[in-house]
Amino acid sequence: MVTAPSLWGLIPLVIFIILVFKGWNPIASIVTSMIVGAVMSGQNLPAIARSIQGGTGSFLAYVGLIIMAGGGLGKIAERTGVARNLVRFVMRRVGIDSPTKTIIGTMMASALMVALLGTLAGANAIIAPVVIPIMAAAGVSSSVAAVLFQGAGATGLFLGPFTPPMVTLMQLTGLTYTQVLLAAGIPISILLWVTTYIYAQKIRTKSLENWAYSEEDMKALSGQAGDESPVSKQATAAFLVTLLGLIVYGIHIKGGATFAILVIMATAVVTGLAGRMHPNKIAEAFTDGAKPLVWLFLQFVLFTPFMAYIENMGAFQALANLFMPLVETGGRPALVSLATIIGVVGVPGAAVAQKVVINQMFATLVQGLAVPMSLWVIVLLVGSQITSFLYPTGDTLGAMGLARSGDLKNMIIFGVVATVPPVLYVVLRAFLF
Predict the structure, then answer these.
(1) 3-state secondary structure of 25
(2) Is the pTM of this model over 0.70?
């Protein structure tokens, strides 16, 4: 049994990181690491069972529930035609008569749907069948499409008021939605948007040599014009009115993280009913959308006892003691830079869990140096979300799959290029704050 505080307590976290990098299933990774932590911290079987039970009522488990609910809402939006209507509306407003306009329209559609539904892969899966024929006709390659799906889509997670990252950031920092948006969401989204657009334009012409869409994809565009039924239009109106109305109300009453699940479920029910779906069909669609995300909910439930065992061994306190001389010399800029780089480079996994790890890892030092939450929230956002760009993880491969692209080389280069501006921005803010 490890005596606190001790750096040996970080062994379960190191094991978790190694297993994730080696491509283990997320549940297998967290279970293995949790067992190691339980043994090292001297937990018996009843204590482990109680800690898992406690995990079901944790904030992380609640975020996992929000993510599953977002998947359910996405499925209902897909089956009622709401998603297609919204994407077509955006593309028509921007215009699709040139590659540049098509790129901008796709970026807007991806970011909007991710912000509304709170899920990157789910939202992009909905828009892909609509925008791919448009991109094919405009001369935009699948390589570019994959870049847009990941780069622009990710910004929707930073802008939506009840997306999992936003809910987590509000909970960890105590800031309101508007404060998180102004301090971190908008600045980082602008950086990613500019980087994504420039890189997409850079590879657009050359990537057509090997990764152009087929003529069959172009022909599919003609079948999209006249399928907007009155029922789907009513469902779209109900979706927008309900979702936006509840978002405004939630911000007004400062509902914060706890209000998110109500917004998602109420919007799902109203949209389904407006789309003439029977309540049974609404429930089935909602469940179908949530099913693929059950693994994430289970991981978050188990992550709570996993982190508790690490804390019981005083690992984060020992880490704070180790970094204290460096922080005392470099002050706030050193702490902010160190936390951001460690988060981006060394703590892969589910982004929501990454935020919790980074926050707990540096909590003592943040309090000691009185780091403003308006600065710390940028560290949490960049340190957790940008990891998916630096490494070709599930988000990268998912974007490629939805875009039907096999161009991994450009995705890896784009990921590295997209990582640099947000990290530099955090470091610059640390020195100028």
Answers:
(1) coil
(2) yes
Half-sphere exposure of 396 (CA within 13 A, CB side): 21
Termini Cα distance of the chain:
43
CB of 365 within 8 A of CB of 323? Answer: yes
Q: Which amino acid is at 334?
A: A
**Residue range 118-128, pLDDT digits in tens:** 888 888 988 88
> Which amino acid makes up residue 322?
L
> Which tokens go with 392?
């070709």
Closest listed residue to residue 388, CA positions, set 211, 157, 181: 157
C-alpha 293/C-alpha 298 separation (Å) is 9
In angstroms, the CA 275 to CA 83 distance is 12
Residue 198, CA distances (Å) to 54, 195, 245, 414 in order: 46, 5, 35, 10
Secondary structure (3-state) at 23: coil
Q: How many angstroms separate the CA atoms of 13 and 25, rounded?
A: 16
Dihedral sign from CA coordinates of 385, 378, 58, 113: negative
The whole-chain average pLDDT of the chain stands at: 89
d(CA 210, CA 3) in angstroms, rounded, equals: 58
Residue-level length of the chain: 433
Would you say residue 47 has pLDDT above 60? yes
Provide the 10 A C-beta neighbour count for residue 244.
13
Distance of alpha carbon 43 from alpha carbon 260, whole angstroms: 35
Q: Which residues of 161-198 are buried (b: 16+ CB within 10 A; e: fewer)?
A: bbbbbbbbbbbbbebebebbbebbbebbbebbbebbbe
Q: Are 344 and 421 in contact (CB under 8 A)?
A: no
- Please tell me the distance from the alpha carbon of residue 266 to that of residue 287, in angstroms, as a whole number: 15
Residue closest to 251 by CA, chosen among 316, 323, 172, 160: 160
Instruction: Give the rounded percent of residues in the chain with a pLDDT score beyond 70.
Output: 97
Q: What is the pLDDT of residues 316-354, one digit of tens each?
A: 888 888 888 877 788 888 899 989 988 888 776 678 888
